[in-house]
Amino acid sequence: MTETPGDDARSVREFVRTCHAVVRDIARRSGRPDYSPTQQRVLLEVGARPGITVLEVRAALGMDAGQLSRALRRLQTGGAIRVRPCPLDRRRRIVEITDAGRRAYEQMADGYQRAADELLGRLPAAERACLVTAMDTAHRHLTAALRHTPPGQPAGGSMLRYSR
Questions:
Q1: How much of the chain, in percent, has pLDDT values that exceed 90?
Q2: 156: closest CA among 129, 46, 141?
Q3: pTM for this structure?
């Protein structure tokens, strides 16, 4: 912990800002600049989890309903996904990746891997190992903190399911 709660908040803001910059950089170099970072996140989640529902995508990515709806609409219009009613519960909608979407998913997943390797490859081996350990620790602790979100608040999910 830092000296004051204000310092903690400042550290969180700087960490989040850096994470967003890394996500934008990796998304830009993913090999699919025709998809926004949000669309990429959604397509990567849908591609990794066949039979996923809209609600599950929303929970996994911690997105609000409007943001997810816009991303799904753009992906559907572009032919990357289909959204259909669940046969067991018509209130739920299943998101399916199309053949074109699968090709984009594979290209993105490979691009994300290359971009992450390039980014981490800029560091000496010892610093890279230290950073990866710190990221694993941050992920574990932040995920635990999100799970303890007060009732009525949206809980975040894991966004790191994109390895192939």
A1: 62
A2: 141
A3: 0.76
